[in-house]
Design brief:
Elements: H1 16-19, H2 23-33, E1 35-36, E2 45-46, H3 50-59, H4 66-75, H5 95-111, E3 116-121, E4 125-126, E5 158-166, E6 171-177, H6 183-201, E7 207-212, H7 223-236, E8 239-244, H8 254-267, H9 275-283, E9 292-298, E10 307-308, H10 310-320, E11 321-323, E12 331-334, E13 344-345
Parallel strand pairs: 3-7, 6-9, 7-8
Antiparallel strand pairs: 1-2, 3-5, 4-5, 5-6, 8-12, 10-13, 11-12
């Protein structure tokens, strides 16, 4: 039962705008002066805080506290908001068609019992006693002590995790590298996943679907990426089909919101002092929906700047890589043809 009203409607002290004629007009003028954004666009905002507005109103001779300013702004349709990451760059005209193609390929492989994975590299992380966002339960008055500045430490080094997410099995795998995030490292992570988990989970598999971004170590234009995948196909006997997401759409990669976000949560509030801490944190990542993860340390050397010769690429294009009729630069299949004629020139 609601409480009865203590006074009649309209009673009480009048609002600041009622007691001081011209106040609302003066406030509107200040908001107009403090606006930012395109004048022909509905996207505008004010750079003035409530206290700034209160002080400027006082300078104009009006008594209007910050609470009254907030009330008047709400009445005029203003609200306190953060930024929203919704604006995208230039979109490819076949972007949606490529997404439909990727989803159709995943459905085809999973229905046939063949492995389909989403792969990508996670951003590098600095090792050492550095601050990480988040909070964790600890005895009162005993916070984890970390450095007050995040200046890089060359001696401690960085790690570069590369993830492999098995879409049908809902299983995550990550190789934690200590060298460079190159195409050779990316394919090495896929190889490690296949030998450790994929081969056991799909013993009769003849094909492997790899979905990934169009840039980074698994770039659609990377020669080394295709060369290393050709070696992997020859080693495993798998026919490897690759589907790249259209440029600028990496946040739609399943790996981002089914694996990496949960790894970040597991790492939160705890510094990654050693490489082993990072590996253990990934391996401890689980979710209520059944996600489990495996992590391995890859301390191999993956130098940057490795070039693949024109001769090797002609061989791959003529005998190993089959381009799809629909955007062959994004969709192609690598068949196991042997490891002859590698011709990698440093």
């Amino acid at each position: 039962m609601p409480w009865p009203r203590c006074r009649r409607a309209g009673a009480g002290r009048p609002g600041a705008e009622e007691a001081q004629p011209g106040l609302r007009k003066a406030l509107d003028g200040l908001l107009e002066d403090g606006k930012r954004g395109d004048p022909v666009s509905p996207l505008t905002w004010s750079v003035l805080s409530l206290r700034d507005l209160e002080q400027r109103m006082a300078a104009l001779g009006f008594r209007c506290g910050k609470d009254a300013v907030a009330r008047l702004m709400h009445e005029d349709g203003w609200s306190l908001q953060g930024m929203a990451k919704v604006l995208e760059g230039k979109q490819h005209p076949d972007r949606n068609a490529q997404f439909r193609h990727v989803n159709a390929m995943i459905a085809e492989f999973t229905a046939a019992g063949e492995p389909a994975v989403s792969v990508d590299g996670k951003k590098k992380e600095q090792l050492g006693p550095y601050h990480r966002d988040g909070r964790s339960w600890r005895p009162a008055g005993d916070p984890v002590e970390v450095r007050d500045h995040d200046f890089p430490d060359e001696e401690l080094g960085k790690i570069a995790p590369y993830g492999v997410y098995d879409i049908a099995a809902n299983r995550g795998f990550a190789a934690v590298g200590t060298s460079h995030d190159t195409a050779a490292f990316a394919v090495s992570a896929i190889r490690r996943w296949w030998l450790a988990e994929g081969l056991l989970r799909y013993p009769r598999a003849a094909r492997l679907l790899v979905t990934c971004d169009s840039g980074g170590s698994n770039s659609s234009v990377s020669r080394l990426w295709k060369h290393e995948l050709a070696l992997l196909a020859a080693e495993t006997g798998l026919e490897i089909t690759v589907c790249h997401f259209p440029p600028g759409t990496s946040k739609w990669n399943r790996l981002e919101h089914r694996l990496f976000c949960h790894i970040t949560r597991t790492w939160s509030a705890l510094p990654l002092i050693t490489r082993e801490d990072a590996v253990a944190g990934i391996a401890a990542t689980v979710t209520a929906k059944g996600l489990k993860c495996t992590a391995v340390l890859d301390d191999g050397d993956y130098p940057e700047g490795v070039q693949v010769s024109d001769q090797r690429m002609r061989h791959l294009e003529s005998r190993v890589i089959g381009r799809s009729p629909f955007h062959g630069e994004w969709n192609y299949t690598i068949v196991p043809r042997g490891q002859a004629d590698e011709n990698v020139i440093p």
